[in-house]
Each structure stands twice: as structure tokens, then as C-alpha cells.
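Entry 14. Structure prediction run on the chain below.
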Amino acid sequence: MSYVSPEAIRQAKQMDLLTYLQNYEPGELVKLSGENYCTRTHDSLKISNGKWHWFSRGIGGKTALDYLIKVRDYSFSDAVETITGRAAARPPIFYALKPQPVRKLLLPDRNDTNDAVIRYLTGRGIDREIIDYCITRQMLYESKPYHNAVFLGFDRDGQARYAALRGTQSGYKGEASGSDKHFSFLLADDPNAESVHLFESAIDAMSYATLLKITGRNWRQAPLLSLAGVFKTKRENVVPVALERFLAEHPRVQTLLLHLDNDEVGRGAAQGIMGGLGEKYRVLDCPAPEGKDVNEYLVQRINRNRGKEDRAR
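Output returned:
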């Protein structure tokens, strides 16, 4: 390795990746939203808040030096010389990052009881034990005055950061103001998990837990993560932000099991996740064998079992 002076190393370590790309490789940057970017070569490599993370490989860093070594496979000395050489030829312009507004989650008031939510969810085939588990842990409650089901998602400090709303007396679907999709509904979390099951909604996650219980399996053995909805997009290999955040906080995960809907949007989202993360993780596409989604399959299965019991009487 050629000699690199301590001053050159110090200078190279001062340059963050966003500054480097903005100044010397602007064509490699793709703006996603606000101050969030990905790279054109690797769209699962996200740059945000002064840091970068390559989700499909499970690696990240802050500096351009880290990027050149870990992503571009430069030697340490070549990476330092590249950064300092470019900076000497054309001093970089440091673009001030706009401060990210802090989202304040505005939750609906809690109703005195959860009776309407319990009736609604049991009516959709979800096991009462699983409903009570969510209510006891304050992941689920009934709002007032509209009696919506409120499904909460939390950050690592236990603060509610996301809330999905589902009408118990109508077809209403929505999110509480200030919801951050990075922190969606997560059932049966395990910080040491090696696999995670993925769903479009909290109800599908709870429905899958019910299916596990029906078949005598432990529904709390692996995390069940709602992606807070998925959407059709023109970009390829899109990884939902809820999954990105989860994987960054659960480095032992090796297997992703996709239980997304049997429609065009759900199938497209599954392909995006497999394309974006297939090189790093074992990704299994496991949609419901019948019906549009996991909950519809659960209801069909329960109705069939009831029909068999009625005929046996």
C-alpha cells in the first residue's frame, strides 16, 4: 500500500458521501424526497441525514471514504487519493442540509372501551388472544368518537410514531396525521430474529398469526411486520421504508417471507423487494393460497371448517 499522509486521511474522512456525489458524480444521485437520495447504480443504497446504508448488502457508513472502499472496492490508499485529488482540483461546495421537520403524531382520543374493535376483528376471523395481546401492549385501541381501530407502530424508544386507522362501522382506511411509515405496526417482535414475515396491513399480520395458532404453531416465534401499505411505482426494486428501517435494526435477519396481496400492486411490490434485496437475503414469496389477501384466506378457511363441522353434526 502506498504511503498516505495523516493529513490526507483526515481530509478524506471529512467528506460525507452526499457532498462527494453532488460535487463529483452528480449523475449517480437520484433524489427520492426531501433530503433523501439513492444511487443510480444501486437503488437500495439510500442516503439520508448525513449517512448512507446499502440495504441489499447490509452495510453502511457516513463518509465518501467508506463508500469508495465498501461499495466501489477501492483500496484505502486509492480511496483517499481519489477524494483528496478531486478536492484539490476542484474544492467541493458543501450544500447545507435542510433541517428535517420533526413529525408530531396526532393520535385520536381513546374510547372508554375497545368493544367495537374487538367485535370487528373477531368478525374478520382474528383470534381473541391475539387481539387482547395487541390491546394489552397498547398497540391497538378504539378511537372516539368514530370507533375506528387504531394500529400503532413504535420506535426503538417505545414512542408511537405511526398509526393506521380502520373503520369498524364503515370501509374507512387512513393514517393519523404525522404518521411516519418507517415505524409501522410490528407484531411479536424479536431483536434476535433471523426471519421476518411481511404484510401490507396490520390486519393481515394478525390474520397470519391466527392461522399459525389454528395449525398449532407458535405465532410469537417470528416478527410479523406490516409495511403500512404498498404502492405501484415506475421505479424498479423498491424496498418499503418500513422494511428498510426494520432490517437496519435487526442485523441478524437472513430470511424475508412475503405475504403481500394477490393483486397487481401486491405482486409488483413483492417483485420489487425480491429484486432489491435478493442478493443479500433469502426472500420467499408466500402469498395467500386463496383470496385477495391473508385475511380473506383466513375467513374462507374458517367458513370451510364451520361448514365441515355443520355437516358432521
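The CA atoms of residues 6 and 208 lie 56 Å apart.
Filed with the rest of this week's runs.
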